[in-house]
């Protein structure tokens, strides 16, 4: 939709069209596609595949989602926060849930823009050391902060934004039952939000597992800006395309 609105054309190539990694290596895919198109938006799951495409293509390669990062989603979240509060610097964002790809990108984007990012995850499901190092380095340079704990109530205290995502991401289905047990205290519900300021908003990258990481009452309630964020995925990705193409 974004390319069409910008006056361009988009070609969708699914896993059965390319069979990247089994039939054709990423380097060959990149070298072929650069002869036909002006840019590549890669949603490949494996982060190494995105990096390989970017290394070998002479055209822009956008990470539309990988198992490590989801920068396009973070851009949509940041625009949504900017629209609601009129600023990003000094905003406190609380993450409640899994230390996943969306969180990594929010840590990078939020701390680089002077936000305080408070993360609450179970001890075995937190951020990796490299993301923590980069996040704290970015925060130090921009006046932001990165705080880590396993206490959801402490994370949402003084928060302007409460963010959650699914407990089980793509490729983790075999551990879903164990994750549900580990994340029981991390549901975003009315009881948790009682610890947050009255002005705090709630968002989710969607789609949600309703009744797991967030309740219907909160996701559909007046504090939710999840659908605003969903809309802003279109606007931010159009802006990104206009910038790089």
From TrEMBL:
Its EC number is 2.1.3.3. It is an enzyme of class 2 (transferase). It comes from the Bacteria. The keyword Transferase applies. GO terms for molecular function: amino acid binding; ornithine carbamoyltransferase activity. Residues 89-242 form the Aspartate/ornithine carbamoyltransferase Asp/Orn-binding domain. GO terms for biological process: citrulline biosynthetic process; L-arginine biosynthetic process via ornithine. Keywords: Transferase. Residues 2-83 form the Aspartate/ornithine carbamoyltransferase carbamoyl-P binding domain. NCBIfam families: orni_carb_tr, PRK00779.1. Belongs to the aspartate/ornithine carbamoyltransferase superfamily. This is Ornithine carbamoyltransferase. The gene is argF.
């Amino acid at each position: 939709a974004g390319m069409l609105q910008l006056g361009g054309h988009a070609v969708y190539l699914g896993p059965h069209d390319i069979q990247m990694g089994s039939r054709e290596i990423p380097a060959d895919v990149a070298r072929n596609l650069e002869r036909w198109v002006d840019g590549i938006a890669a949603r490949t799951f494996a982060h190494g595949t995105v990096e390989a495409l970017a290394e070998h293509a002479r055209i822009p390669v956008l990470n539309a989602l990988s198992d490590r990062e989801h920068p396009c989603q973070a851009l949509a979240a940041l625009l949504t926060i900017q629209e609601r509060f009129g600023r990003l610097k000094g905003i406190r964002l609380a993450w409640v849930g899994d230390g996943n790809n969306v969180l990594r990108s929010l840590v990078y984007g939020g701390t680089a823009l002077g936000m305080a990012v408070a993360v609450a995850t179970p001890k075995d499901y937190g951020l990796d050391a490299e993301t923590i190092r980069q996040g704290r380095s970015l925060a130090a340079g921009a006046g932001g902060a990165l705080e880590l704990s396993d206490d959801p109530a402490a994370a949402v205290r003084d928060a302007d934004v409460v963010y959650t995502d699914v407990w089980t991401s793509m490729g983790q289905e075999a551990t879903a039952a164990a994750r549900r047990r580990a994340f029981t205290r991390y549901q975003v519900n009315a009881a948790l939000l009682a610890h947050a300021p009255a002005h705090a908003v709630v968002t989710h990258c969607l789609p949600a597992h309703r009744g797991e990481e967030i309740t219907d009452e909160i996701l559909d309630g007046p504090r939710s800006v999840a659908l605003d964020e969903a809309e802003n995925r279109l606007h931010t990705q159009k802006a990104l395309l206009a910038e790089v193409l």
